[in-house]
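Weekly puzzle thread! Below is a chain. First person to post its structure in token form gets bragging rights.
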Amino acid sequence: MSPARSARLATYFHVHLVSDSTGETLNAMAKAVAARFEGVIPIEHIYALVRSDRQMERVLEEISAAPGVVLHTLVDRSLRTQLEDGCRRLDMPQIGALDPLEGALSRYLGAALSTRVGAQHALDHDYFNRIAALDFAMAHDDGQGTADQLEGADVVLCGVSRTSKTPTCIYLAHRGVRAANVPLVPGQEDGERLTTLRNPLVIGLTVSPERLVAIRKNRLEGLGAGGTSSYVDHDAVRDETVKARRAFERRGWPTIDVTRRSVEETAAAIINLLSERRSHRVGTSW
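Winning reply:
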């Protein structure tokens, strides 16, 4: 096997994620860490809502059948001990994913850790705020809502078709941000109605013409609607994106180039802009 061929082969390994809550935190942490290793692909085994001895016994049986690394965020001391003892018998590494941060904060704050399972998922004000933000995003998607209704938004995203406006709004909603979006449609909507908004921060999303054409072609193929049209014509798309950029500049809206950004990265940039706005330091582009 040639060195080039060998370099392309991925390394697979089993990772067991054990949580007495939903497992969302643990799953996100595992993905973030694994992404830092090139050519390494984890085979995830997720065990959520593990809250009894019997459930833990089944988890250990699964772990024994697929040796690998065990990560956990267990709050209950007896369950944690059961998992640690079981991994020790299996000679398998186990890691309390939140231990370093919890220990550091406990020492700094001089406070004891809570033993309440799923404390981060309590039905508190923040939880209901996220649900309300999600409802808002869905009700004000793709240009829905009058100017008066859009005043209830924290941010309004504006951009040409296929600039990830909707998924970005949904992601922001999960962070408690009320987001709406308005598409720029050649010959119909140019964002002028957004210039009267006083409360929301209006942000323009831009993208390179080449990237936009590729995205739109994939979209049409997925819908079984091939063929040629101004929607995917390079010259028409370039003209569309140039007009959008000029409209954003003319109105003084901050802009974010989403050409090489994931939805998560775009949302992070938007949250930064919102924070800067609150500090009266809004920039012009990201």
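Puzzle host: Confirmed. Bonus trivia for everyone else. The first strand starts at residue 11 and ends at 18.
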